[in-house]
């Protein structure tokens, strides 16, 4: 796999061209901010288990004609540019354009760009441009895996009173208090318009989203954890996914010539 490594005064990062997949980010002298399965595949055609899979143009099984989470996470992106903005900040731009293969799966002409800014924060901007002559609809996510000291120590703040779709039961419910993990969790939170915090035993991670009002929270827990590919049976103890999304009712319609940016900043 072709990998881009970034090292500047404030942080380091690793990004695979396949899927524009960021699979490592850490501030200098600090623990990584992204979880990566120690038995992840690094193989053509298989999504890396961990980091930030780019789910596009469909989140989950929203479009039954597409693979789960769309095709972008296993597609080969092109490296457009790497810019040293200053000694603390590096910007990497990766792009994916339509091809005969994507048109067969999804009949629209598009340009997709992931702009990654590596500094004391990790910023990801996923820009979808419609270069077709017909409108298209997308659902998508920056499917970030965050490491936690232990899943029982993790809580998510910022979602209190938010409506959510429980993907396990298809029920529409309302969050009460912090999100904690005592069983499998697979939820699409809606109407999220402010920062979400992942509070762990010894640090708090901030997640700020723009161009999005949905946040997916996922942990497979014991049984599903055993069925997941490319992760150890007990890996569910070590991470939680908090995904910056346009999912469920937060889908986006993009007109010809228009674009949409989904932006996530984590630190
Ligand atoms: C989450 C979904 O976003 O991704 C879960 O809500 C899913 O239902 C998980 O299991 C992992 O998906 P995948 O395709 O990477 O195994």
Automatic annotation (TrEMBL):
It is an enzyme of class 5 (isomerase). It comes from the Bacteria. GO terms for biological process: carbohydrate metabolic process. Keywords: Isomerase. One of its GO terms (molecular function) is glucose-6-phosphate 1-epimerase activity. It catalyses: alpha-D-glucose 6-phosphate = beta-D-glucose 6-phosphate. The active site is at 143, 243. Substrate binds at residues 49, 68, 73. Pfam families: Aldose_epim (PF01263). InterPro entries: Aldose_1/G6P_1-epimerase, G6P_1-epimerase, Gal_mutarotase_sf_dom, GH-type_carb-bd. Its EC number is 5.1.3.15. Belongs to the glucose-6-phosphate 1-epimerase family. This is Putative glucose-6-phosphate 1-epimerase.
């Amino acid at each position: 796999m072709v990998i881009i490594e970034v090292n500047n005064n404030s942080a380091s990062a690793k990004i695979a061209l396949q899927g524009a997949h960021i699979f490592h980010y850490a501030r200098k002298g600090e623990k990584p901010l992204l979880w990566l399965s120690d038995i992840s595949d690094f193989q053509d055609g298989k999504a890396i288990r961990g980091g930030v899979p780019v789910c596009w143009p469909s989140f989950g099984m929203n479009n039954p004609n597409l693979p789960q989470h769309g095709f972008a996470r296993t597609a080969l992106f092109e490296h457009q540019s790497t810019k040293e903005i200053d000694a603390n900040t590096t910007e990497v731009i990766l792009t994916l354009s339509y091809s005969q293969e994507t048109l067969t799966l999804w009949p629209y002409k598009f340009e997709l760009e992931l702009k990654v800014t590596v500094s004391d924060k990790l910023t990801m901007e996923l820009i979808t441009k419609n270069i077709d002559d017909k409108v298209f609809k997308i659902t998508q996510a920056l499917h970030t895996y965050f490491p936690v000291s232990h899943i029982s120590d993790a809580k998510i703040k910022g979602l209190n009173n938010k409506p959510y779709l429980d993907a396990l039961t298809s029920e529409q419910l309302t969050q009460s208090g912090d999100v904690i993990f005592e069983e499998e969790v697979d939820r699409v939170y809606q109407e999220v318009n402010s920062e979400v915090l992942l509070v762990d035993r010894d640090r708090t991670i901030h997640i700020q989203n723009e161009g999005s009002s949905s946040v997916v929270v996922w942990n497979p827990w014991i049984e599903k954890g055993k069925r997941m590919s490319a992760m150890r049976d007990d890996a569910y103890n070590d991470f939680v996914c908090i995904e910056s999304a346009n999912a469920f009712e937060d889908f986006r319609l993009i007109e010809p010539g228009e674009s949409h940016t989904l932006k996530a900043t984590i630190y």
